[in-house]
Design a protein that fits this description.
The longest helix is centred in the middle third of the chain and has 38 residues. The protein folds into three domains: 117 residues, Beta-Lactamase; 151 residues, Alpha-Beta Plaits (2-Layer Sandwich); 167 residues, Hypothetical protein af1432 (Orthogonal Bundle). By secondary structure, the chain is an alpha+beta fold. It is built from 19 helices and eleven strands. β3 and β4 form a beta hairpin. The strands form three sheets. Strands 2-1-5-4-3 form a five-stranded antiparallel sheet, covered by helices on one side. It has a four-stranded antiparallel sheet with strand order 9-10-8-11, sandwiched between helices. α8 crosses α9, α11 packs antiparallel against α12 and α11 crosses α17.
Length: 473
């Protein structure tokens, strides 16, 4: 059977990387020649814009749904309904030899109608209920997790929305901390977490339940002939199973919402909306704690694999507070300083262990990898303690007075006072206690080194003040 291709089109995106090679976003740079004929959309203003900005202003062409799968060197195929066009598309996502990302939209609207009429067959014509063959089930699988996809979820809702399936329960789920995991460890680790979550769900839910991945970190489950109380019990078992099945040192955390249709007169869309709202309420309630628990696990893991011990952080805090008290920092700045001492190197959890533990001087490429830890730490911590902005301090805690630090955004008094204090204390602590790649030196020699680098690496006034305080102490 031949299908017309007049509604097919593609978009080309160029990746944006940080100065240290960290992937940041995509910019839309080109459209296929037939784009405007196929879509009738006014898209000129979008050329040159970041995808994150495009989807923040309007969810066009399903880009908000596709965004989590737009990763450099990825190869994905997803079926979506593009609401702007009221058509179904198979979207192929792949990179070319230039590292540009291409989204090819293949119109399958007619094919969908053909499938519904030819591949599916009625098992109860009176109630217009359909059963899906194995051929169509394979077509409706999510390529990463093996669960069903959004299209199948929507069709099963239609199929199961009958009186004989009541009570019909819906569970909506959202994986907590996926973006944090992607930022800290890369999308490969994020994919492994999604696969592990899917494996746990398959273990807990029953064979007749329809488990689907309907978005980047979103899941939905249909439970026919299931009371809400039973569904809530299944959710509790699922949470227990997640806690018992971590991925390496990462605990799988999912927030769930449950709602049940008990009367044939109830609108199923309202039931789904209720489950979704309850899930978002639970995510607000659980999400921040889940992220904090994840950060604590990362910190514990870092302590086990590096010199970033609690004793190191305590020494760092004592040294920093000695200077902070002397110059009269206010309580908010002191709290920022304490948190910076505790979490400044949390991003090293995303750096290969052989680099962290290497006893010889780092090669240039290894050094560039190591410098990424401040950016990784920024992404990890940016949703915690928002009122203090500690994530910004983590990002710039290796800036230098002369501007030759990294990431290289600031110099002199543009560097926050908290960071200027911290950098002196951190350097002193490292020198007198040593590192895998460098032998420790005496306190006298460490203070001499700080004096030598006052005005280049360190704030000269703070450096002199620190030296005086340490000599008195």
């Amino acid at each position: 059977m031949e299908y017309t291709s007049k509604n097919d089109f593609f978009l080309i995106f160029k990746p944006i990387y940080s100065s240290h090679g960290l992937f940041l976003d995509y910019i839309l740079i080109s459209l296929s020649k037939n784009f405007y004929d196929a879509t009738k959309l006014k898209f000129d203003s979008m050329i040159g814009e970041r995808v994150s900005k495009i989807i923040s202003e309007n969810d066009v062409l399903g880009l908000k749904y596709l965004y989590d799968n737009m990763v450099p060197n990825t190869l994905r195929k997803l079926e979506i309904k593009v609401e702007d066009l009221d058509r179904w598309y198979m979207v192929n996502i792949f990179s070319d030899e230039r590292d540009y990302l291409i989204l090819f939209y293949n119109d399958i609207t007619i094919m969908n109608e053909y499938r519904m009429n030819k591949i599916n067959y009625p098992i109860n014509s009176e109630n217009n209920v359909y059963e899906f063959t194995e051929e169509s089930r394979i077509y409706y699988k999510d390529g990463l997790t093996g669960l069903y996809n959004r299209a199948f979820f929507n069709e099963e809702l239609f199929r199961l929305n009958t009186e004989r399936q009541l009570p019909l329960s819906i569970i909506m789920g959202d994986l907590n901390g996926l973006k944090l995991i992607n930022d800290a460890f890369g999308h490969e680790m994020g994919d492994r977490v999604l696969i592990r979550a899917a494996k746990v769900m398959r273990k807990v839910f029953r064979k007749e339940d329809v488990i689907s991945r309907i978005g980047g970190d979103e899941f939905a489950v249909i439970l026919p002939n299931t009371k809400e109380e039973t569904a809530l019990g299944i959710v509790e078992r699922l949470k227990e199973e997640c806690a018992r099945n971590p991925l390496d040192f990462l605990i799988i955390s999912i927030s769930f919402g449950v709602a049940t249709k008990i009367s044939v007169n109830e609108d199923l869309n309202n039931i789904i909306r209720k489950a979704d709202n309850r899930m978002y309420y639970m995510k607000i309630k659980e999400g921040k704690q889940a992220r904090q628990d994840l950060i604590n696990n990362l910190k514990q893991r870092l302590e086990e694999t590096s010199f970033e011990t609690r004793a190191h952080n305590k020494r760092l805090e004592d040294l920093s507070m000695l200077l902070a008290e002397n110059i009269g920092l206010d309580e908010k700045e002191k709290e920022e300083l304490r948190l910076l001492c505790e979490y400044h190197d949390i991003g090293k959890i995303g750096i290969p262990e052989h680099i962290i533990k290497k006893k010889k001087p780092l090669e240039e490429e290894e050094w560039e990898d190591l410098k990424r830890h401040s950016e990784i730490g920024y992404h990890i911590f940016k949703d915690i303690k928002k009122d203090l902005g500690v994530n910004d301090l983590i990002l710039i805690h290796h800036e230098r007075w002369d501007g030759n630090g990294y990431p290289g955004f600031l110099k002199n008094e543009d560097i926050p006072l908290v960071v200027r204090i911290f950098s002196i204390a951190d350097a002193y602590e490292a020198m007198v206690n040593g590192r895998p790649y460098k032998e420790k030196i005496s306190q006298r020699d460490a203070l001499k080194e700080i004096r030598n680098k006052a005005g280049t690496q360190f704030d000269p006034k703070l450096a002199e003040m620190f030296i005086e305080l340490m000599e008195k102490k």
